[in-house]
Design goal:
Layout (H helix, E strand, L loop, with lengths): L1 H16 L22 E2 L11 E2 L1 H14 L4 E8 L5 E7 L11 E6 L7 H16 L4 H9 L1 E5 L4 H4 L38 H12 L2 E8 L2 E6 L14 H16 L14 E3 H4 L6 H8 L3 E8 L9 H17 L19 E2 L2 E2 L6 E4 L7 E4 L5 E5 L5 E3 L6 E7 L2 E7 L1
Parallel strand pairs: 1-2, 5-6, 5-7, 7-10, 8-9, 11-18
Antiparallel strand pairs: 3-4, 4-6, 8-10, 12-13, 13-16, 14-15, 14-17, 17-18
Helix pairs in contact: 3-4, 3-10, 7-10
Length: 417
């Protein structure tokens, strides 16, 4: 506890004495000083060395080829379409078994800002690595067997292919309506978006509603830092109830990457991670929306100081990010594990089965609890106390949001819609 508190105080004091680098999605975009050397792959074969960006048609062909080559390991989901009709795709990777409902769901999503394309290629290469490594690499095989993985390499195709389907040169941050998609999600804390909800975000929200993701990440560029929730508040104003867990997860991601390249993840804070609002407060972002409404922990990964790195740098970025990106998927198995030495607002040790979750009104407990049942809000305030044996709980009077249920040492996270 002392170590984590010391790290937190250091971050706050360091931010006060050393101005942080401006958050790349907090200000009007500034053109990069010099155009990057960008090579494009017009065929799947030209992506073999992973030192090019795919054209839009090559991207579609890659996704289709994987689905055809590994029909027992993956399939392509269509999340939706962009304003200009381009496909927003997700590759589902997993083994179909009788215990599907009991295996955790994980989601990676990249490039909601169309000019931040490092993550786009990293996600394509991650798909390729997991599929081709299945059966020969123990870690990849175990992940595919135990986790239902979805990977959306490109969530803003109109922004990325602004100058046509054959180049990412001249890509822009916004969608085709010139709306910042990371300022366009419903805000759990009451701020109304400046623009009507864009169809890309509506499709993504529907995709979250159709799944039960417990852990996710959205990938950006312009800095190198792990940005954990909340974005809407500083950690002094409202620390996230999972803050201690997030610090451990972010530290593992950064430390692993630095084993392969010690110079990265240092441009915002030396630690390489920060609470979003301590960097810069934003509203209507995806990260807070997902954390609050979907019973899912999502982090923002800023992967490269340049939004569009030169294509010949892509293999180097994969070299130092590969193991961190794979290991982050495994964090689904740490969600209900307490951080050693830390007393969380809700002590998560064993999870109660609660359904339906998310819910609009009532929830049912999968078994009769032997202890009293308490309901807490995200600030750790107790809202309800029910007698032992209670299995049906009416939440109609509670506003929409995230709540925690506890009975003895067993807990559950509940989303009220």
């Amino acid at each position: 506890m002392c170590l984590l508190l010391g790290t937190f105080l250091f971050n706050v004091l360091n931010a006060q004495s050393h101005p942080l680098k401006q958050r790349p999605d907090a200000f009007d975009p500034v053109p990069e000083a010099a155009p990057k050397a960008v090579s494009m792959a017009s065929t799947v074969e030209q992506m073999a060395n992973w030192d090019r960006y795919p054209t839009y048609s090559t991207y579609l062909a890659m996704m289709q080829q994987w689905a055809e080559t590994f029909p027992n390991l993956c399939h392509v989901d269509t999340i939706g379409k962009s304003v200009q009709g381009r496909l927003i795709l997700s590759m589902y990777i997993g083994i179909q078994t009788d215990d599907d409902l009991y295996r955790p769901e994980f989601f990676y999503s990249s490039t909601m800002h169309g000019d931040e394309v490092t993550g786009y290629v990293m996600m394509l290469r991650l798909i390729d690595t997991l599929l081709n490594g299945y059966g020969s690499n123990e870690q990849y095989t175990d992940l595919v067997n135990r986790v239902r993985i979805s990977i959306n390499p490109l969530s803003n195709p109109d922004g990325t292919y602004r100058n046509g389907n054959n180049t990412v040169q001249g890509a822009m941050r916004y969608n085709a309506n010139f709306v910042d998609l990371n300022r366009n999600y419903p805000d759990p804390f009451g701020t109304e978006p400046l623009n009507s909800q864009q169809i890309e975000n509506t499709a993504m929200i529907d995709y979250f509603n159709a799944h039960s993701f417990v852990l996710s990440a959205n990938l950006h560029g312009g800095s190198e830092v792990m940005n954990y929730p909340w974005d809407s508040f500083t950690s002094v104003e409202r620390p996230h109830p999972d803050r201690d867990w997030w610090i451990e997860v972010c530290r593992r991601f950064v430390d692993t990457s630095r084993l392969y390249s010690n110079s990265h993840f240092r441009d915002v804070l030396e630690e390489g991670y920060i609470a979003g609002g301590d960097w810069y407060v934003i509203s209507n972002g995806r990260q807070d929306y997902v954390n609050y409404y979907h019973n899912c922990r999502e982090v923002t990964m800023e992967l490269s100081t340049s939004k569009t790195i030169s294509s010949n740098q892509l293999p180097e970025y994969w070299r130092f990010l590969q193991h961190s990106l794979v290991n982050y998927i495994e964090e689904v198995f740490t969600i209900n594990s307490p951080v050693e030495g830390v007393v969380n607002p809700i002590d998560v040790r064993q999870e109660l089965v609660v359904y339906p979750n998310p819910t609009h009104d009532k929830i049912f407990l999968g078994e009769e609890p032997s202890d009293e049942v308490s309901i807490f809000n995200i600030k750790g305030q107790q809202l309800m106390l029910l007698p032992a044996g209670t299995r049906l709980i009416d939440l109609q009077r509670l506003p929409q949001g995230v709540y925690f249920l506890r009975s003895g040492i067993r807990t559950a996270k509940i989303v009220k819609r």
